[in-house]
Amino acid sequence: MNDLAILKQTAQTMSSREIAQLCEKQHGHVCRDIEQLNQTYEQMGLSKIGQGYYTHPNTGSQQHREFLLTKEQSIDLVTGYRADIRIRINRRWQELETQPPRELSRLEILQIALQAEQEKIALECKVNELQPKADALDRISHAIGNQNVRDTAKTLDKNQNQFVDWCLKNDWLYRDDASRLKAYQHRINQGFMAQKSVIYKGQDGAERVTMQPMFTPKGITHLANKFNKAIA
Known about the structure:
Number of domains: 2
Mean pLDDT: 77
């Protein structure tokens, strides 16, 4: 079955004009409530209420906006209205469901197809927007606990020397008097970095203790997002 045939068999709808009449509200106010409901639908990943157009004898061929609601959408809309209003809507839906479905006009079919295409484009844009974050999280999915500079650069898919240079320039790391890398205190306070005690041998052969900078999972995630946004 092609898309046109599917559209012709679309579900029964109730217009926002009829809802306004049943609820004894101004049509503009009902449209405003529907727009707010559509925002909630979008946040929840649900299909938004479709929009259509109608003509009025007083305005000739001029087209006016209206919304076409399914039964579920109608109930969602009027749930916050008075009890008697909800009863009117429910009774009207009982009448509509006993009527044979009408065939959509060519204009209505085109409007539905246009809305579907717009929602598809919006969804693709949303996926493209979230993809960098998904890539960043994927790269750190195997990072367990704190990591040293070398392992962090590997996790972020960065050259170690270039990564160190970036950290030095962006106040993540600094070199002490002995040219050893250290973590800035404010990065530790942010939870992005930590320090680990390590033992090393000096030129005189004696063992000494120093603090090695470590990147926390929170810090690695933060850096992964930065590099995905081309900040590096």
